[in-house]
Amino acid sequence: MPLITTEIDRAIRDLRAGKPVAIPTETVYGLAAPINNEKAIRAVFAMKDRPLNHPLIVHVASNWDLNTLVEDIPAYAQQLIKKFWPGPLTLVLHCKREQINPLITGGQTTVAIRCPAHPIAQELLTKLDIPLVAPSANPFGKVSPTTAQHVSESFPNQELTILDGGRCTVGIESTIIDATHAENYQILRHGLIDEKTLAKVIATPSFNHENTLRVPGKLESHYQPQKILYYFTSYEILADFCQKNPDKIYVIASDRPAGTREDHFHLLEDHPEKVAFDLYYQLRKADASDAQIIAIELPPTTGEWQGVRERILKAGTPYCS
Questions:
Q1: Which among 37, 79, 185, 301 is least surrounded, fewest beta carbons within 10 Å?
Q2: Do 190 and 273 sit in the same domain of this protein?
Q3: pTM
Q4: 26-57 pLDDT, tens digit each
Q5: CATH number (domain holding residue 113)
Q6: HSE-up of 178 (CA within 13 Å, CB side)?
Q7: Residue ranges of the binding site for ATP
Q8: Are 28 and 146 in contact (CB under 8 A)?
Q9: CATH number for the domain including 303?
Q10: Angle at the Cα of 292 (from 300 to 253), degrees rounded to 5?
Q11: Domain coverage including residue 295
Q12: Total domain count for the chain?
């Protein structure tokens, strides 16, 4: 049975003993293991049923010397670190291979690193004095957890310490940037920090060519609820579907369709930050409800919405009338 606790020292004891621990971050809860403990890292892969070639993100304390982990940090990446760390931005850099277990990189020559903004995560990382891998604390490909209770529900039969840091304030995973080139960068996974936001900090151009780097969240299907999730390009099509479909439907949309129960409806807000905060929370709530189908209205195609849209497109199925 999982144990939910606020005792950081308990989490540190488990981590030092080679046991994975679920930790809070500002994005989602992560299933953590020290980067220098291969047995613990393998336990994380096993618990999640995660493919071994799927790389992990290394989480560091805000005062950690990155030069111990990576070969070089381009000037623009240093600017991004100064502006956005701690925070939901992950940088992919050339790793020092003798320092990073190939299990973490999926056998690549690069490593993904971020500095989480959650105060409990930072206190834990500082006290432990070793970076942690921390993929989302849920079975691979399923909806990420944004509360300690979500983690407990994801691993009901595991002996797992879950460090409770409240509900995650961001709610979707970090933006991942390929920062292995000195002259330009590329967004590999969208989050709330979008290209427009990055352009306010750096003048470095982005590029969009085919990228072979493997990073978390890039599979075609991911973040999936247990129930079927249909996404709709417009509210009108969604409302028509609800009217014609006799099944119980959990709706996430800009308005409540006629006939939809109040407890089966969540308002799709008009701000990406608000929708991101609620997205996984609502998908899990829908899974726990007596609804048979989940229906969600797609947000706009503009840049600031890309992180949320990316999650929905991977989690759901397009509705074709």
A1: 301
A2: no
A3: 0.96
A4: 999 999 999 999 999 999 999 999 999 999 99
A5: 3.90.870.10
A6: 20
A7: 50, 59, 110, 136, 144, 189, 223
A8: yes
A9: 3.40.50.11030
A10: 20
A11: 228-318
A12: 2
